[in-house]
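hey so u asked for the seq, here:
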Amino acid sequence: MMFYKFIRYDLMYGLLYRWRAYALTFLLFTLSCSPMISLHHRASQTFVNLPSFTYGDHILYLFAGMKEYIPSSGERFFLPTLWIFVILLFLYLTLYYPYRELMGFGKQMIVLSQHRVYWWISKCVWAVSSAFLYSVVLVAAALLFAYFTGAESCFAVSELFPSFLPFAADSLHAYPWNLFSFFAAVPFVFMLLGLLELLLSLILRPIFSFVIVSAYVLLGTYFKFPVFIGNFAMAARSEVFVSDGFSPSTGILICCFGSVITICAGWLYFRRMDIMSTEH
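ran it, structure tokens below
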């Protein structure tokens, strides 16, 4: 019974009562889709009778990322700024709640329950829930913008749309593409990143955790290796769109395995952590 009180508390105070933060996130990403208007205008000058972009195009726009960077190609390296913003905002939204809660009411709950594992597992449930809620908010923001700008009510990606994004044209699969197969891996990427940040925030304090996980994400834009799980949340590096991309199902398995390892490592650390003498 006490375990469910931990979970109810975290879902209420860590998600429901933070509705303003997610409402602001919704607004930010609705506005982040505004370049789609000018993008369609420029594209229509090149392609005659270009149809309206679809709902799927707007979702893809947020998660396009960038194609693999090959230094020997002579091309300049450009950071996928919107994709990075999507990832880092999630890390920031989930940064301080667990640590602040532990420094406050969380200590009392742990003492009353006599079970530290309840607190840790509850925070992991909160982190996973935050990842999936954030993914829903992003999609909802893109769909709202698409609806009010007259986008075609279709979740398929337009045949020409990837050519307007940093995709590798020479390895692009033939049309059509299954957007849902790609997007299925995105919440799991957020999940593992959130759990890693949660663990590191207990060991090193939140701000250092944010810096480390952010640096890990940024390195993934330069290096195309599966160890950098952000690659699985980039459409331009997904096998759904390009022949040399990563498999979404492989990404889900890696994220689930990494999450289990992170949860176990966190419990081994937290059970020995001196929470009573931890500084605020």
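The chain has a mean pLDDT of 90. Residues 185 and 249 are 7 Å apart (CA to CA).
lmk if thats what u needed
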